[in-house]
Write a structure and sequence with these properties.
5 helices, 5-stranded antiparallel beta sheet
Length: 254
């Protein structure tokens, strides 16, 4: 299906999406949604996730029947008002734009948090999450606001959007307050190391305990094994957060 963007009044995007879903024939379009992103905020020394609009004033819709869709849209009162205002924008996305944007989002059309590690001097050493796909498009980080400013293209127009990040301090806080959800209930018994380096005895899918470093005390699942490091998945904020830690800081649970 081809993807299009509809411009509407900021703050009324979700209302219009609900109206279109209710009044348009189901067989004339595929998806119709507002794109969102997560942002981590500190409220009374507690981490809270807020869901914000990724492209304020924009709705995305897919269809193989654009002329038919356009005719039906004219019958929706809210769309008629927007069209008559002279500010109506119904524009196809360029090749590759839709695929890129959809790859950044989950099935709920939300760009989830990206874990970002720094060297202590605001230099990025590692990241895991949606921002990995567009690292070259990041214009700036605002660490205090837990967000990155990213250059994205919609219908050929460059826009600066915000995407949420999570730092080591946030994970330490969740760990300290016992909010990292236990993934496993096996006894804390470690396997014996084998020759070939710290990562030699580890495999994707292993349940591990973090025994050293910033994330000491967490239990996790290995999602990727590298030569001297492993990417692990810990559960917090109701989802999996990917981290990268030295291989010698984890031990597989028997």
């Amino acid at each position: 299906m081809l993807w299009y963007v509809i411009q509407t009044y900021t703050g009324r995007e979700e209302q219009l999406v609900k109206m279109l879903r209710r009044q348009l024939p189901k067989d004339c379009y595929g998806e119709c949604f507002v794109a969102y992103y997560e942002q981590l905020r500190d409220r009374r020394q507690e981490n809270q996730i807020h869901i914000l609009r990724l492209f304020p004033g924009y709705i995305f819709i897919s269809t193989d029947y654009v002329d038919r869709l356009f005719r039906y849209m004219k019958t929706v009162p809210a769309m008629t008002k927007i069209m008559s205002s002279g500010e109506f924008l119904f524009t196809p996305l360029y090749d590759g734009e839709a695929e890129f944007l959809l790859a950044m989002m989950d099935s709920d059309r939300v760009v989830r948090l990206t874990y970002v590690a720094t060297d202590g001097h605001n230099h990025i050493t590692y990241m895991a999450g949606p921002l990995e796909r567009c690292a070259s498009r990041i214009r700036a980080y605002q660490f205090r606001k837990r967000e990155a400013q990213v250059r994205l293209t919609v219908a050929g127009q460059e826009k600066i959007v915000r995407m949420g990040i999570i730092l080591n301090d946030d994970i330490r806080r969740e760990t300290a307050y016992g909010k990292v959800e236990a993934r496993i209930s096996t006894p804390e018994r470690y396997t014996i190391s084998v020759p070939g380096g710290p990562a030699a005895a580890l495999s994707k899918g292993d349940n591990v305990a973090v025994i050293d470093g910033a994330f000491e005390g967490n239990r996790a699942v290995i999602s990727q094994v590298k030569s001297n490091a492993v990417r692990i998945s810990v559960r917090m904020f109701g989802r999996e957060i990917l981290l990268e830690v030295p291989a010698e800081s984890v031990r597989r649970l028997a």
